[in-house]
Each structure stands twice: as structure tokens, then as C-alpha cells.
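>> received
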Amino acid sequence: MKFRCEKSALEKAISKIDTIILSRDSKSIYSNVLLTVSDKTLYLTASDNENIVRISLPVENAVNGEVLINARLSFDIARKIVSKDIAVEVEEKEVAAEGQKGYLVRIYGSGELSAKYQIPGIVADQFSTLELERKDTLTEIDSDTLLEMIRKTMYSISQEDNRYIFSGLCFIFEENNLTLVGTDGRRLAAITRKLNTPVRFVHEGDIVVHHRALREMLRVLEENETAYLAVEQREIYLRCGDAEMKSRLLEGRFPEYKKVIPSTNPIEFRIRREDFISALEQIVVVSAPPGHTIEMNIKSGLLEFKAATRDGGDARASLAIAYEGQEMLVGLNGSFLMDVVRSLDCEELLFGVSDPAKPVVIRDIKDPDFVALIMPVRL
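>> returned
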């Protein structure tokens, strides 16, 4: 096996898979990357046993074959070698101590200052592989749309291991629509967008994608591309451009999120998002962790913020709002509130409040298909 490729193309491919590598255990097979050459194409495959990502790029002087090499070492070599292109040659050798087949992998560049490397390689027969999904099972969505959906909901998922089903986003496929929902029990975000094609696969049970897989999706998805999704046997498959991945779904039943969204809100007001962020940033800085509690007092024509420090200090700010009605004081986690408004890109926010003990509803004024909820805290 051998190949030559541009260093910049290889570095771009590495950047899409390097976070999935299990660097904690150098003896694990998943601390390696699989290099496969087939038909003048190099495939780099990385896995952590629950997620598998494969990136392809064109190569020259290609001889088909595959080898498994240490990921961290090979990635560092590819980044540091002084050359515009990189050549790799693999030679089979016998591992004397074990009597098994192994490889010697030579890596070098074309420049005068390029170092020459020799590292060991191993047989790849125990490494996870990624099979292409049938085209008739793939559902299409714009990559920009999927990126937007993940970014506007991912912050709401749980970071606590004991809330297993809440540690991912629920993907709800319905005919021509896809809805993503995230919650940790104290906040919720949901967004719905149109698919480019009807759903072409059959699935059973809730589709909940773990937060580690979501991070890999954000790296795999390229802007201005078409993304392809499929679900089969409790795994979700994604392909976009030169990258594809498959991830194991979380097991369990996701809550019916629509039941917790208030049907009516007696108090509603609009506010410019940038003004709201500016005021909130100034207040949250003094709020005490871990709750980061702030007071939001809604009055006729005025929205008042207050946060207190642990040693008796406080911070206050206010904004004018177009609202006439009853006054209501609500306690909220300021960090949760900041996560929502920073994820949006609208000019105006719409807030809905029904009771100090019920969720505060936040919407994009021009996007009826997005909603976020934050449970209040006791003041």
C-alpha cells in the first residue's frame, strides 16, 4: 500500500476526526486510525466504539491496501512535517515477538527540509468499519439547516451522566419535517425544519443522538452542502461531502415535550435581542454559581434585572419594553437564559410568562418553528 496527497487536504481530513480518538488509553485499538486506499482514494476512519467517522480524499501514486496506525503520532507527524505534500509507503513485516503480521509505515515529504519517519502499523481486522447506506434509505436535508438546528438546541441537553436519555437530542422525523428537541428537565429547546425529501427509512422508538455524536456531526457537516440521514438498527448515519459517520443511539423513551409548552401566556413582550444580551451580560457576571440566579421583574413599560453576590453585593439593569399589564417577578438561571439568546440570530425576541412557577417561553419573533423554555427558580 502507498499514496501521496496534499498536506493541506490531509490536515483538513484529520481536523474532522481527531476529537473522536481515545487518547486516554494508548493500548486500545481505538487509539488508532485506519488508513485505506482504494481506487485512488484515501479513507481515514476513526472510532470510539460508539461513533465511527470516515473521511475521504483523492491521492496519487496509489496502491490499494489498509493499515492501522497510532492516531496521535501520525496526526502530529502530518501537521509538523515541512512539505506541501506527504507520501506514505507501507511494508509488510513479521512481528517476531508475537509471530504475527505487522507493518512498517514510512512517511516523508518532498521538500529538502522534510523529515523522514518510520512508525509501526498493525492489521486492521478487529477495527470497526463503516458500510455505506443504500441510497433509497437516505433522507436529504440542507447541511446549513441541520447545523442551525443542532446549534439552537444542543445547549439544552443534560451534562449529568445520571440523566441518560437527556444527554442527547431527540430527532423526530415526520414525513417532510425534522424536529430536534433537547432538554435536561430544567430547560428545553425545540426546532422544526423542512426536509428536502420525505423520510425514506423505517424506524421504531425514539431517536436520541448522544452529545458526543452531535459534536462529531458539527465537525463533519460542511456549509452549503446536502446532508444525507438514515436510521437503521438503533444507529444514525450521516453523510456530507467527503465525510460520513454512524453513531449508536441512546436507549430509552424521550419525554413528550409538547405537553410542557404553555398553551397561553398572559404576559407577552418583545425586546431587541442585542439589548437583552447587553443587559444580561452585565448582570450575570455577579450571579453566584452554580445556579446563577437572576431576578427578572416585568412591569408596564419596563423590564428590570437584578442579581446578587454571595457576600451581599448586587447588580441591576433595566430595559424599556412595549408592555402594559400586571407586574410579575420571575427567578431564572441567568446562564440558561444566555445560552438561548446567544444561540439565536434574530433581531427581536418574544417572551411569554404565565406564572412565576411555570416555564418562561422564549421565541424568535420571525420563527414560529422554534421555541425554548426555562423553568423558574425559587427566589
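>> Residues 70 and 195 are 39 Å apart (CA to CA).
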